[in-house]
Amino acid sequence: MIQNSLYLHIPFCKQACHYCDFHFSTNLKTKEGVLAQMHLELESKALLSPWKSTTLKSVYFGGGTPSILASSELKELLNAIKSLFSYAHDMEVTLEANPDDITLDKLNSWHDLGINRLSVGIQSFHETELKACNRAHDSSMAHSALEMINASAFSNFSIDLIYGMIGSSITSWKENLDLAYSYAPSHISCYILAVEKRTVLDKQVRTGEVVLPSDHIALQQFADLREWAKIHNYEHYELSNFSQPGRHSIHNKHYWSYQPYLGIGPGAHSFNGEQRSWNVSNNIRYAKGEAGDHENLSVQEKLNERLMVRLHTSDGFILSRDLDPLGLNPDMTARFTYNIKNALEQGKIIEIPGGFRISASDWIVSDRIISDLFIED
Ligand code: SF4
Questions:
Q1: Residue 1: what pLDDT?
Q2: Pocket test for ligand 1, best of 14, 22, 124, 160 (most atoms within 8 A of CB)
Q3: Which domain holds residue 337?
Q4: 316 φψ region: left (φ > 0), alpha (ψ -120 to 50), beta (else)
Q5: Does residue 224 sit in the same domain as residue 309?
Q6: What CA–CA distances, in Å, run from 151 to 107, 112, 154, 183, 184?
Q7: Quick one: which atom of ligand 1 is closest to the CA of 21?
């Protein structure tokens, strides 16, 4: 049975973080209509191939801010999923939760619903850093949310942190890591602050209102993160992801495996093995049932995507797993082999049994190395 992962995009937030370019709205007036349409979308997609013949191994409520939903709304979505899809008995069910939404009552009801993993958007424990990027929570809410999680039935939870953060230093970053560790998360995801086009942060940086830490500081923070992970026994298994032994994110690993995944909700993406499709990124239009769009991926695009994803993981790129199923023609094979040979000779990639990888310490600066391996049309 082919395995599948399901992503539900909950496109609502209390306030807009200055760096964010995800699809969300702070206007909750469309919530009912969006949720009703998500139920309709679940019902219709469950009947289609490949979703009707696949078994769910993970469900991920992302956003936006899924923890903004009432427990009754999450329950209705989970009930619909369980009645429409076949699913593994040990299915991972993750909820992204922001500290300002977390209460002991909510934690208990989420656990009772079958949610067995939380991803908590802490980003920083420092008041100035949180304020600078307009997060809805403050430092004391971050601490009390994690204290409540520690007192709850959730043993599997991830903390999100951001490095290269506005106003951060090498010292403040190390403090963030040590404070996160004091709550013993099973997983930690650390992202570098990216300046995305058309965000408030983009404007602030362009006008000089905000000056980000230098590349040198951000690279040192990444190096310190890796050192911290080694000391505290967190496996660095992907550029931004670290876990205690056996606690990798099943959902994320599914994305990196090129198996089909289904995305429900405004702006959500799906992949059926051949075609990528996406829903309209507008809550009102989505609620009215407007269709999204799709693209067919060429062999080159599939290969290049696989290189980009796999070479940011500790697994690396395995020829029998990642290349052979693509069926490259002899010309493409010759070009790809040439690129690999060059990169190996230059020491940019390392040979591993059955394939190659990039050293984890270089993942943060590896995009150029990876794009040199791409084959063009
Ligand atoms: S809470 Fe998350 S999705 Fe919402 S604005 Fe902030 S970063 Fe974006």
A1: 64
A2: 22
A3: 298-377
A4: left
A5: no
A6: 10, 15, 8, 10, 12
A7: 8
In a domain, 63, yes or no: yes
Structural domain includes residue 287: no
Residues 236, 303 within the same domain: no
16 CA → ligand 1 middle, Å: 6
Cis preceding-peptide flag for 265 (omega within 30 of 0): no
Note whether residue 283 is domain-resident. no
Look up the pTM and report it.
Answer: 0.96
pLDDT digits (tens, 9 = 90+) for 42-79: 999 999 989 998 899 999 999 999 999 999 999 999 99
According to DSSP, the residues that pair with 295 across neighbouring strands are 276
Cβ(315)–Cβ(293) under 8 Å?
no
Beta strands across the sheet bearing 269-271: 235-238, 241-243, 187-192, 157-163, 117-123, 86-97, 54-63, 2-10, 261-264, 269-271, 275-278, 293-296
Same domain, 100 and 199: yes
State mean pLDDT over 181-195. 98
- Number of DSSP helices (H) and strands (E) in the chain, helices first: 13, 15
CATH number at residue 19: 3.20.20.70
Name the band, by pLDDT with cuts 50, 70 and 90, for residue 234. Answer: very high
Residue showing tokens 């796999």: 310
234, 372, 216: which is closest to 307 by C-alpha? 372
List Cβ neighbours of 311 (8 Å cut-off, separation of 6 or more). Answer: 317, 349, 357, 358, 363, 366, 369, 370, 373
Those residues whose C-beta lies under 8 Å from the C-beta of residue 242, and which sit 6 or more positions away, are: 187, 188, 189, 190, 225, 229, 234, 235, 236
Query: Which residue of 14, 18, 20 sits with most ligand 1 atoms within 8 Å of its CB, as the best mutation to test the pocket?
Result: 20
pLDDT at position 8, please?
A: 98
Name beta bridge partners: 275: 296
Question: Which tens digits make up the pLDDT trace of 325-358?
Answer: 999 999 999 999 999 999 999 999 999 999 999 9
Q: What percent of the chain has pLDDT over 70?
A: 100
Lookup: tokens for 56:
């769910």
Mapping DSSP to helix (H, G, I), strand (E, B) and coil, where does residue 301 land?
Answer: helix
